[in-house]
Amino acid sequence: MNSNKSVLIIFTGGTISMMRDPQTGALTPADINQFREFMPELFHSDINVDMLPFDPLIDSSDMNPPIWSKLANIIYDNYSKYDGFVITHGTDTMAYTASALSFMLENLCKPVVLTGSQLPVGVLRSDAKENLLTAIEIAAEQDEEGNAVVPEVCIFFEAKLYRGNRCTKKNSEHFAAFKSYNYDPLAVAGVHIHYFQHLIHYGDINKPLRLRTKIDQNVAILKLFPGISEKTVKAILGIEGLRAVVLETYGSGNAPSDKWLFEALQDAVKRGIIIVDKTQCLMGSVELGRYETSLHLLEAGVLSGYDITTEALLTKLMYLLGENGDDTDEVRRLLQIDLCGEMTID
Fold this sequence. Notes:
Blueprint: E1 5-11, E2 18-20, E3 27-29, H1 32-38, E4 47-53, H2 65-77, E5 84-88, H3 94-104, E6 105-106, E7 112-115, H4 128-140, E8 153-157, E9 160-163, E10 168-169, E11 178-179, E12 187-189, E13 193-195, E14 210-211, E15 219-223, H5 230-237, E16 244-249, H6 259-270, E17 274-279, H7 292-300, E18 303-304, H8 310-324, H9 328-335
Parallel strand pairs: 1-4, 1-5, 5-7, 7-8, 15-16, 16-17, 17-18
Antiparallel strand pairs: 2-3, 6-14, 8-9, 9-12, 10-11, 12-13
């Protein structure tokens, strides 16, 4: 571990912050003093660790844009005081929070590492200690010139460091809860931590961090399935105030060829609703026009989401709509640009 480095741990909640009640067996939030007792290692290393707990702690199912904004503001306000940041977070919505922060913290040049656990910190076989201690080491790691080795929003879980806006939760049972299907891990932790620098996104150290927390939540997800009705599609596209839709399609971006579907999507686009094609497959990319069953989507004005995750696309839409107001053309333009490593455009 590096010496004289400082890391701020922001405790939001999640399983990692829980303890089992000896009387009832139920999981309850642990206070910060109990957490210190379970993990004395935090305060016996060469890294100075400060702890900032949410009060009350938050279940990840209750995460929302105002909390994302609160986290971004905490990091922004403490940016000059620490070499890196670790956020403990429940696993269920961790990928959404990581994706949102990657857009909110523009030109980030320090690590923000989200982590958690599948078992509470006080349980004998818990994965909490390894995940948290390694996340702290990664957050403090610097190169010979004193620059952060991984200056982006990441998720560390079960020995692998992933780009935050490339992740999705894949398993609710195993310790390896996350996977980045379209982008390789940024680092792998064993006896040593091996970083793959050619995969890491670097900001401009000569430019300041910019906080971008305006969010527009008027978005929806429309997942296609065999037999989906015209009534269902039109009900979603007809939501009052709707500004954008993640259209989850088949394969490389394909959809049924029904005339009514084409007309419903085309009408929505004409009304100013942005529709982005996102494949339901975990791996691979949207290729609009590759098959006839996606050509009509292109003709209707649907945009390609390439290989972006649903979590990243949804938060990117919220971010772009919030930051750009009624400028739909600018939002559409930026959706086709890789802003911070969230997608690969051929």
